[in-house]
Fold:
Amino acid sequence: MCGIVGLYLKNAELQSQLGSMFKPMLVEMSSRGPDSAGVAIYRNPVESSQIKFSLAHSNPGFLWETLGTNLSASLNCEVSTSTVASHCILITDAAETEVISWLQTNYPEVRIVGSGKSIEIFKEVGPPEMVYEQFDLEKASGTHMIGHTRMATESAVTTAGSHPFATGADLCLVHNGSLSNHNLLRVKLEHEGITFQTENDTEVAAAYMTWKIRSGATLRQALEDGINELDGFYTFCIGTQDGFAVVRDPIACKHAVMAETDDWVAMATEFRAIAHLPGSDQAKIWEPEPSTIYIWGEQ
Structure:
């Protein structure tokens, strides 16, 4: 039993309030997931020649600035780092593959949590409100966020096992439910060159999306194929650079509700996470249909 929430702002004038609007949504799901929490926020897009990495380390005192200096010297590139608790947002003009290879060789203990032009991922063990405050997100501006509160059922409670899981450039996935064929899929994906950091079944779903998109599928095509190939009970919310997508399994036994106004689109495991949003009493509210893909934002 976990909680997932997503908020996409259609009204640009609300972007400065994204963090404060989203916090009650995540906190309302604490009872569904007290073990750990995480969010993906889309903000501050970098230049076309740059890439933004979300990095994490188990040591809150890790010297991220030193890592940035060493990366810059090794790859002869521009690097900037911004540290928030145990996480770091690193921006560089080096090639993504070169940065990943360099980190794996020189700092294997550093986890690459996500990457892209605008995505920033923060996740940690602990109650959702504490995690949100730890990363100072209440005053954050941005276009949209997705979040997750976890009650672990099939793998250890760790920061690495927390959601969201990255699925590719500016893509990430959060999940409520359980996949029954994730071990078989893991083996198949490993044969395709996909690597894993955890035993979490959600990471397998994220890796599946990565593999499909790398193979040339659109996000919608990847989700359509996933309905046929991912076996289990689930609701997914997938963050994209321009919005988010929602899909439920063919039986749709996992809770989900959506709401839309002229100003925003929201989804949550339970409506109480949406009820505080301005105008929610006038919103169009519905339960997502099984095996149906909903996407907001340009794709």
Notes: The chain has a mean pLDDT of 92.
